[in-house]
């Protein structure tokens, strides 16, 4: 789903709605991609292009950012999509959408859906097509490069163009494509805690390279230096600390690297209607969308409300919402945060809550309607507000050969009592309704 939350192959993409870009400005596009160790490409083409071009998206403070070359009015509408490769090789992409090229933000039908202006420097553009010609109707391009080639193997883009950029490529500072984030990137700001398992590597001294477990008091014992406090240090900070303890007393010019082999001290819990419930390590600044992309909510409840229970102390396991009134919240020992996923799907990334240690993310069971009788596929189906009888029957495969569109009843709970009501095809249903389609009389 573009302009919202896409969950596919364990990859989440949140792209706020983009309806317009401003002519002769560098459009800047932002999206949240999870897991953050993924690599992302923003594909685009103008109205006069027969092939797609793309720019690499760079990770910045929990988001991925892309800056496009400057479109001219004749370039519109632009067609675009995002393609992502996860750290495990899984792939996902958004559908294709269009964005108009406008003169001012006020010219866009939805001024809130206009791309922000990016840095005013020429952009390197890549393509998977055989032709290295310039995109039609764009300026501010430093170079067009074929995907998978090195700069040394390229021919200058100007030799393949039908329109030259505004200034010669040699005179313009080129936007260097950022390196993809490494798989271990989330651990960079991770603070070590009790029970974490660390790999300490001392280069040139294999006898000192060890795997250690941080004890409950936040320390571990290391050869030569004795007890070392590790709590609340990042792996890089701990490596610098060990380097200082070893040099110059024991090892001259020591070089130490610390890796977190198992994250055990800071965890979150994801439970409810997900395909992979369980305990997950809290790496750096993991957000709600990242947690959902890991746990895999079912399609039926991807837009439902999510409840986050946040205890104010240590817990031994997940805290469920039904425990909220049984002491924890009543005594001020836990907070409850409710997030409507439809807000995130609409592009409101302020609702993408940053999770904290011991948080429980609870995905409730999605409401359903039940369709029975003379339909092709009777069963339970997801309920969405505004769903009509006709739409519910369509989800069930439509009427069977014997089904009658004039003999439909709904079984509904009214004030605690089960009631059967006659209902028309275009009337809305309620959560929990059972639609019964009867057979034709003759």
Instruction: Give the averaged pLDDT, no decimals.
Output: 80
How far apart, in Å, are the first and last alpha carbons?
45 Å
How much beta, percentage-wise?
35-45%
Helix content: under 10%
Which regions contain 5 or more consecutive residues with pLDDT less than 50?
150-187
* Main beta-sheet strand count, sense and barrel state: 11 strands, mixed
Shape annotation: flat
- Tally of helical segments: 5
- Computed structural class: mainly beta
Tell me the radius of gyration: 28 Å
Give me the count of strands: 30
Describe the structure.
With 442 residues, the chain is mainly beta. The chain is built from five helices and 30 strands. Strands 1, 2, 3, 4, 5, 6, 7, 9, 10, 11 and 12 form an eleven-stranded mixed beta sheet that branches. A five-stranded mixed beta sheet has the order 22-21-25-23-24. The radius of gyration is 28 Å and the shape is flat. The two termini are 45 Å apart. Residues 150-187 have low confidence and may be disordered.
Q: What is the compact description of this entry?
A:
By secondary structure, the protein is mainly β. The protein has five helices and 30 strands. Strand 5 and strand 6 form a beta hairpin.
